[in-house]
Design brief:
By secondary structure, this protein is of the alpha/beta class. Helix content is 44%, strand content 18%. It folds into 4 domains: 209 residues, GAF domain (Beta-Lactamase, 2-Layer Sandwich), CATH 3.30.450.40; 96 residues, Beta-Lactamase (2-Layer Sandwich); 179 residues, Rossmann fold; 116 residues, no CATH class. The protein has 27 helices and 19 strands. A hairpin with a 2-residue loop joins β8 and β9. α21 packs across α23. It comes from Clostridium magnum DSM 2767. This is Acetoin dehydrogenase operon transcriptional activator AcoR. InterPro entries: AAA+_ATPase, AAA_lid_NorR, GAF, GAF-like_dom_sf, Homeodomain-like_sf, HTH_Fis, P-loop_NTPase, PAS-like_dom_sf.
């Protein structure tokens, strides 16, 4: 080593004197010397510059986690070299010294060199050195004697290794420094191992911190059990749901908390876990109904614990309602009308929205019964809760009860093993809208009456009554009083539902609304198309007002949409009176119910009929349909119409 110290000293002198570098000098050192010369670092110095000292307190605050992790490693390394004249330093990613441990004699030498906490120790400030050069090259570095660019460091040997985060970014540097006479190649290996240990410990610390943050911030309650079913950990959400102190629950017996849950199946079973099952927690004289998941933790096929996650049933139902669209989108301001009676209905709707009373909405199909129901919900204090719409006529007879009131696991053949909430449970905290209430079977009507009387439900196969906080709005296009006379509808249920009554107005009795409705529909279609901006002509509106609209507003909207897309002019218009009459006939069913024909099918049939009537003459067809030839050819191609 003495020969190398002499050699590098001579090489350094030669470089400082005339700028030549001995080819035997290590490439990393030679390149560093050149950089230092370019930085205009004084080779006759090498001490720390007081102008580049940061606040020790600030650096410690900025790097608190790195220092706390590195300090035990530094102490461990120092315990190995203690008394041999070495000091262990920790620098941050910028090269500022943050921590030092060392023998007294070497610490005094460091003070004289201004090699102290807060000092910047980079190449451009103090010249070639293990810390600065290792950070620049991003690799372990050892500097001995005159390899240091500053002459005041020639009596030193330093070994440094960068410390990285999990993404490979430099977060700091660990260094071991002593007298140059104590230089040994093993020193660099020791420092490199220490850096790797700090990296692993940092990654573990960050991982644990993230896990703890995640554990306490997830929206589900979580309880971790060991193999003996002792409660080892509980997150903040679990404490909130169960309304218990942390110090209390960790002392509790999980089998008493969940006395209807079979833990032995998980502990002794083969890959058994429970997903999305209902389970009750019994705690402090109360029952908390939850949806839980219970998963075993295994090491080499041995169960070492169980992780239980859970949510209150009501929270799960709210989430389900939100995800599958149990919400109301319409408000009273969305009701387009100039009719005074309709305006009175809106005023009345706003008044009853502030109450909790049941509402019965009666009227023809297409007159906006659900629109009014949604508006009442959105104007009420329940607007943040779910709005669950149920079409009673669309549910198969044998499934009505389970759909409305839910069922427990195994309640009947084909039932889900976890059970299933009904629409009333899903609407808890909000509004349930029972459309076509007149179609409910009589036996279900009696059960609905019981629910309305006590605001409680019992699932099929269940014994537990669930309290509801719910508003019921019903709608029908039938005359329920006539249905009562025919014994198709319970009279007591009718009066229970008919606390607040609204009768919608057919479009035929509010034709002054046709103008504003048509213009509103066209504005929506213009916005959807993006490329077109069509207007509505007076002749078109007059023609629409001549029709009696058995399908009401719904029928009007569909006709306007059809005419909008079939019109090639800037004005929306229908083809001719014969076409309108044909369409009207198709739109009208025996019971005055709307039977809308898909627009594209209607357009295709219209073109086919015109081609047939005009014997395939394109010019005649374009005149008959009032469209251009290019439009006609495009639609013939679109619908694959044979014109031969």
């Amino acid at each position: 080593m003495k020969n190398y110290v002499d050699f590098i000293s001579d090489a350094w002198n030669e470089f400082i004197k005339d700028g030549r570098i001995n080819p035997e000098v290590r490439n990393e050192i030679a390149e560093s010397w050149r950089r230092c010369k370019g930085y205009k670092v004084d080779p006759m110095d090498g001490k720390g510059n007081f102008n580049y000292r940061a606040s020790e307190k600030l650096k410690i605050e900025e790097n608190a986690q790195l220092i706390s992790v590195a300090r035990p490693v530094m102490e461990n390394v120092y315990s190995i070299v203690e008394g041999s004249g070495f000091a262990i330093m920790l620098a941050d990613k910028d090269g500022y010294i943050m921590d030092i441990i060392g023998d007294d004699d070497i610490m005094r030498m460091a003070d004289e060199l201004n090699f102290v906490k807060g000092q910047l120790w980079t190449e451009n400030i103090v010249g070639t050195n293990a810390i600065g050069t290792a950070l620049f090259l991003d690799k372990p570095m050892q500097t001995i004697g005159a390899e240091h660019y500053g002459i005041n460091q020639h009596g030193w040997t330093c070994s440094a290794s960068p410390i990285h985060d999990e993404d490979g970014n430099i977060i700091g540097c660990i260094n071991m420094s002593g007298k140059s006479s104590s230089a040994h190649s093993h020193t660099l290996g020791m420092v490199t191992s220490a850096a790797q240990l700090i990296q692993k410990q940092m990654a573990l610390t960050i991982s644990n911190k993230l896990m703890n943050i995640t554990f306490d911030s997830i929206c589900e309650g979580m309880i971790v059990l060991d193999e003996k079913l002792n409660i080892k950990r509980v997150n903040d959400r679990a404490i909130e749901i169960l309304e218990v102190m942390h110090k209390e629950i960790v002392k509790m017996n999980i089998k008493q908390l969940m006395n209807n849950f079979n833990f032995s199946e998980i502990i002794n079973g083969d890959n058994i876990s429970y997903n999305n099952i209902e389970c009750d927690f019994y705690i402090n004289m109360k029952r908390v109904k939850c949806i839980i998941n219970a998963v075993p933790m295994k090491v080499t096929d041995k169960v070492i614990g169980i992780v239980i996650t859970f949510r209150e049933v009501q929270d799960v139902h709210k989430l389900v309602s939100k995800v599958i669209g149990y919400n109301a989108s319409y408000r009273f301001q969305d009701i387009i009308t100039e009719n005074e009676r309709m305006k009175d209905i809106i005023k009345f709707g706003k008044k009853i929205a502030k109450s909790h009373s049941n509402v019965l909405i009666e009227g023809q199909s297409g007159t906006g019964k659900e629109l009014i129901a949604q508006s009442i919900h959105n104007y009420s204090k329940r607007k943040e809760g779910p709005f669950v719409a149920v079409n009673c006529a669309s549910i198969p007879r044998e499934l009505v009860e389970s759909e409305l009131f839910g069922y427990e696991k195994g309640a009947f053949t084909g039932a889900s093993k976890e059970g299933h909430p009904g629409k009333f449970e899903l609407a808890n905290g909000g509004t349930i809208f029972l459309d076509e209430i007149g179609e409910l079977p009589l036996d279900i009507q009696s059960k609905l009456l019981r629910v309305l009387d006590n605001n409680k439900i019992i699932r099929i196969g269940g014994t537990y009554e669930k309290q509801l906080n719910i508003r019921v709005i019903c709608a029908t296009n039938r005359d329920l009083k006539e249905e009562i006379k025919r014994k198709n509808f319970r009279e007591d249920l009718y009066y229970r539902l008919n606390v607040m009554s609204i009768k919608t107005i057919p479009l035929n009795n509010r034709k002054e609304d046709i103008d504003v409705l048509v213009k509103h529909f066209v504005e929506i279609l213009n916005a959807k198309s993006g490329e077109q901006h069509k207007k509505v002509g007076k002749n078109y509106l007059d023609k629409l007002k001549q029709y009696n609209w058995p399908g009401n507003v719904r029928e009007l909207r569909n006709v306007v949409e059809r005419d909008y897309y079939l019109s090639d002019e800037d004005f929306v218009s229908s083809y001719d009176e014969d076409t309108m009459i044909t369409i009207k006939d198709k739109l009208t069913s025996d019971e005055n119910e709307l039977n809308i024909i898909p627009m594209q099918r209607l357009e295709k049939e219209t073109i086919q009929n015109a081609l047939k009537a005009c014997e395939g003459n394109i010019m005649k067809v374009t005149k008959y349909l009032n469209i251009s030839r290019s439009t006609l050819y495009r639609k013939i191609k679109k619908y694959n119409i044979n014109n031969k």
